[in-house]
Design a protein that fits this description.
It comes from Buttiauxella brennerae ATCC 51605. InterPro entries: YheV. This is Putative cytoplasmic protein. It is a single chain. With about 70 residues, the chain is of the alpha+beta class. The chain has one domain (about 5-55). The chain contains one helix and four strands, in the order ββββα. The protein has a four-stranded antiparallel sheet.
Length: about 70
């Protein structure tokens, strides 16, 4: 079954500043937003992981099983 991507009207890519170029879809219960112009990706799991990091801890990186 093909993945259904939806465009986000009026959204601006944080990387290349292109307007109306962000597509969103869900993969393995993770929301993914990708710019179709430059390929920049954002994942909802990244945001959730950052919220759980405590201020006094040092994080080297957050890894995803992609």
């Amino acid at each position: 079954m093909p993945v259904r991507k939806r465009f986000i009207a009026g959204a601006v890519c944080p990387e290349c500043q292109a307007r109306d170029s962000l597509a969103m879809w869900r993969e393995n219960n993770v929301d993914i937003v990708e710019c179709v112009k430059c390929g920049h990706q954002m994942r909802e799991a990244d945001k959730q992981a950052r919220e759980h990091v405590r201020e006094q801890e040092q994080v080297i990186g957050i890894f995803h099983p992609d």
